[in-house]
Design a protein that fits this description.
By secondary structure, this protein is mainly alpha-helical. Helix content is 71%, strand content 0%. The longest helix has 31 residues.
Length: 191
């Protein structure tokens, strides 16, 4: 992952991968027939934490709590997975040949998250748990823009100036018109 992130797919040789891993090049080719196969294995492993299994947890929560939990999970994910996010961004920018498959996977994940937000916002608005100022699609797009802005800021500055609790409080106010409540939106410190 480190070599592909630093040098890109085309500039990374299998000899470098073997040297960095402290194994023979033959062993690398024993497990991965081509460099493309190795690269895809790296991508698939890095994509694992991007799949959020929210169904079991969501069943016990109302729509407002589900929205807050999704926002919290997004922000925690950004904080805890910044290196893999940087890797994906680097690959998308450097390697046009392989980025189509990666782009499609990332877009599928993003669309799934967006659709979940639209659905939850719509249901929360119907139950008057959420502000009704904007259509659910527009509210979800704006929410994602804010979250993506926080992601970019975190990638550039790290923990400096990245106030997770403050971000959740602002989003709560924007979506629901309320401030943070005890026990909700508390973000554990970085590991």
């Amino acid at each position: 992952m480190r070599l592909f992130a630093m040098r890109g797919f085309h500039e990374t040789s299998m000899s470098e991968v073997a040297r960095s891993a402290g194994v023979s090049k033959a062993l690398i080719f024993w497990h991965f027939k081509t460099k493309e196969e190795l690269f895809m294995a790296v991508l698939n492993r890095l994509l694992e934490p991007y799949f959020i299994d929210f169904t079991e947890e969501a069943g016990a929560l109302d729509e407002k709590s589900q929205l807050l939990r999704l926002i919290e999970l997004y922000l925690l994910f950004v904080r805890d997975n910044a290196s893999s996010i940087r890797f994906f961004v680097a690959q998308l920018l450097h390697d046009e040949k392989l980025s189509d498959g990666l782009t499609n996977q990332v877009l599928e994940l993003y669309e799934g998250y967006r659709n979940l937000l639209v659905d939850l916002i719509g249901r929360a608005q119907e139950k008057r748990l959420c502000k009704n100022d904007f259509p659910p699609e527009a509210a979800a797009s704006f929410l994602l823009s804010m979250l993506n802005g926080l992601l970019i800021g975190f990638l550039f500055t790290g923990d400096k100036g990245f106030d997770l609790k403050g971000a959740i409080a602002m989003l709560r106010n924007w979506l629901f018109g309320d401030g943070p409540q005890q026990g909700s939106g508390d973000i554990p410190p970085s590991p």
